[in-house]
Write a structure and sequence with these properties.
By secondary structure, this protein is an alpha/beta fold. The chain has one domain: Nucleotidyltransferase, domain 5. It is built from six helices and nine strands; from the N terminus they run E-E-E-E-E-H-E-H-H-E-H-H-H-E-E. The protein has helices spanning about 50-65, 85-90, 95-105, 120-125, 130-140, 150-165, and strands at about 1-5, 10-20, 20-25, 30, 35-40, 70-75, 115-120, 170-175, 180. The strands form three sheets. It has a five-stranded mixed sheet, sandwiched between helices. A hairpin with a 4-residue loop joins strand 1 and strand 2 (about 10-20).
């Protein structure tokens, strides 16, 4: 079983996956053999329809898509009343992010109880991306911070936050992508 988190975009999609999770008969998670990976996809298609299809094709290539029993964690777009947030909403960016999330969940036909929608405020609060990057790099001990895209960082931290809250894992991910004990 795996958990996939997506930082949605129509241009640069951040993703993270924790694969190889098991649960015992009492519902206790075992992540001792889990494999953490992450990255970013640059979406090259022109129209929104083709972009959506390209995103799910990347998911199929990268981690064999999603099947029954897998969990999907998506950053759900939120409206921000700032000038930047108003411009994003007026230009359709907020709706397009919701379209990415809905398309992914619908394409893989996951049951509603296996899809988790979290706004950025719900999973990280109101901190800027640079603080999230610092937390990621501090947790991972990563020295070359310029090599990992901020979209991938957000997807990893979204997955990490979700897994801790659900008591799925208490482990941190190392710079190699392999979880280490806290």
């Amino acid at each position: 079983m795996k958990i996939v988190s997506i930082d949605p975009s129509v241009n640069h999609v951040g993703w993270a996956v924790c694969d190889g999770l098991t649960r015992d008969e009492h519902g206790v998670w075992d992540d001792s053999a889990s494999d953490w990976r992450w990255g970013k996809w640059d979406i090259r298609s022109n129209s929104l329809t083709y972009k959506l299809r390209e995103i799910v094709e990347w998911m199929i290539i990268e981690f064999d898509g999603l099947t029954e029993g897998d969990l999907l964690v998506l950053e759900w777009p939120a409206y921000f009343g700032s000038q930047k947030g108003q411009v994003a909403a007026q230009q359709g960016h907020t709706i397009n992010l919701a379209a990415v999330d809905a398309y992914i969940a619908g394409f893989f036909r996951l049951p509603p109880q296996d899809v988790y929608l979290l706004t950025a405020t719900e999973w990280k609060g109101n901190i800027p991306k640079e603080i999230t990057r610092r937390r990621f790099f501090r947790a991972l001990g990563q020295k070359k911070i310029f090599k990992i895209d901020h979209n991938a960082v957000d997807a990893v931290m979204l997955l990490h936050t979700f897994a801790k809250r659900k008591r799925i894992t208490f482990r941190l991910v190392s710079s190699t992508g392999i979880p280490d004990e806290d």
